[in-house]
Amino acid sequence: MNYINKGKPLPLGSSITSKGVNFSLIATNAEYIEILLFEKEDAVLPKKVFKLDDSHNTGNYWHAEISNIKEGCIYAFRIKQKNNGTNNNYEKKVLIDPCSRGITGWSTYKRENALRKHDNSDSCLKSVVCNRKLFNFQDYPRPNYSWEETIIYELHIKAFTKSSNEKESCFKKFLKKIPYLKELGITTIELLPIFCFDPTDAPNGLDNFWGYSPINWFTPHFEYTSNISAEENRAEFRKLVEECHKADIEVILDVVYNHTSEGDSEGPIISWKGMDEHLYYFIGKDKNYQDVSGCGNTIAANRGLVRKLIIESLKCWANEFGIDGFRFDLGIALTRGENLIPLENPPFFEDIECEPDLAGIKLISEPWDCGGLYKLNDFPSKKTLTWNGHFRDDLRRFWKGDKDTAWKMSDKIKGSPSLYKGNNTLPKSINFITSHDGFTLKDLVTFNRKHNFANKENNRDGDSHNNSWNHGVEGPTTDLSIRDLRKRQQKNLLLSLLISKGVPMLLMGDEVGRSQGGNNNSWCQNNPLGWMNWDNSQQDLELLNYLKFLIKLRKKLIKLLNPEFLISQQNIENIPKYYWHGAKLNNPDWSSWSHTVAFSINKGEENPLIWAGLNAYSKNIDFCLPRSKGNWLKVVDTNVNQIIEPFPIINQSINIKSRSSVLIISEEVFGTKNNIF
Fold first, then answer.
1. Active site members
2. Does residue 24 contact residue 11 with C-beta atoms inside 8 Å?
3. 570-670 CATH fold
4. Would the CATH topology of 4-128 be identical to that of 570-670?
């Protein structure tokens, strides 16, 4: 027999008690709420219904404890609003818990039946009661890399594991790829969204593959798990994080809080919309959803109750799954207030920074949204690093050979001080050349224009401004000179990324020359075009070994390339200092027609330890070298097809081939020339 008690307003969602399960949700406009209990996931009708009246209401929280139910119980809500709301009365809709730790019903789910005019009881999703087991940090502690040390590898979990033939879940297959990532040398993986999302939220019969379409902020996506049970799903992802921590690899999640899969006012009613659309979404006086996400709605993160839910979600992933950090999709959208007006002092990131359970967590954000808001140096969170799109564009334009790029290139190498003004510590810049948005590195040097016809939108989607260059032929070619040049350009870009101050981010597959056939918006390509190819015969293994070597170099040189300090804390003489050169020493060429950048990093005025020359010009150039206290060792030359053995440079000049880079290092840095690591 089940008995209903008043219960408690916290914690939100469903939580196991000594007597049964406590349910709590936020609904500011509810007249009454029904808790529906189901026998099984595909049940059309609930086996029991419990109606909550005002006695189960504390302020904005509705809550009840139901006895004699336990972990694995399947449930959902129906809510009667005090009025019909802006767009409709959703009281007949079966709604999942916004705080669900488990979601079921995918075998019968139909997105079209979640629209307002349909009864969705036979095709709805349902929530599952789960044990909120905490992550075992004692046995699997966080690696806790400083930002100074961090090297990020962005990947899509299904795409990264899909080429494998094993019939295991994505999370389980990923465990076998951890040694690959460890050998590559990265410190941190950044997973594209794994929040439970709607794969049918896509036009033209395609899949929503990337997952930027959340239906819940607490549950691992069902397609990435074995789907045996909600608890097993959670255990599988927890195991993934455990094994990453065991291998000293951090796990960052790309999180989507700026919008949901419920779309605009005509979209489906799955959870938030039926709970309290006036609370969770920005809605204009014309009764239309306001949108700066490009997805039909925008979450009202300026409101305290909404922030409460998001904070609870972050704590869930950090404390229950052991996640090491978060990257906020269109994060700046979360700083808008009523009528989407940007707030001077937005409370969202302030709340995160004040939360003790998130104190040691890495935070990254996109500094832009689809409404044109862009804050980089003035991003409203001191703890949050930002994606630096200017870094991407300026590096691409320099190596493409555009005018007015030399000074901008130097600025990005130095940590973008023109953008992140007044920052004496490690810059807040996440540096990247490529990401999931846009061309892969291979396609960047292979195509002049996007080729997105597979997305079935007549090539209208995706960015047309890519700063790419095909080097003479659009697409693959048998011309060996063009292929060699493209390879060299990939090496140039990777070297430029890894010798720049800031936090570098690499895109899945760039290390092996992964191509998407010129598609720069593969969000709906759940096929080989969007997958990682693990066939060695289809991989550029030379490029892979080159990148491994660069990462080793960066780690060895990290105190010179990417120091983290306050100037007041160190002797000024010991601070690595940049000296800029051209073909001649101390004579950089910042003219609009310049295509070269050279610099040294010195310990003191007379002791250069690193020198790099970047020649994006169409001709070979001789560069003068500064005198070093130790012998100069050439360690990288992108004109050479293999990793070179470091060897001394006797002359005081060096010839750098057209569209090539050279990195030389003082013997003083390594001790001996034959053992640089």
1. 329, 366
2. yes
3. Immunoglobulin-like (2.60.40)
4. yes
